[in-house]
Amino acid sequence: MSLLGLPRHQFARVVQVDDRTPNDRVSRRLRELGFVPGETVSLVATGPVGADPVLIQVGYTRFALRRAEAERVRVVLQ
Question: I want to staple 70 with a disulfide (CB 3.0 to 4.6 A). Which of 7, 20, 41, 65 is the partner?
Answer without folding.
Answer: 65
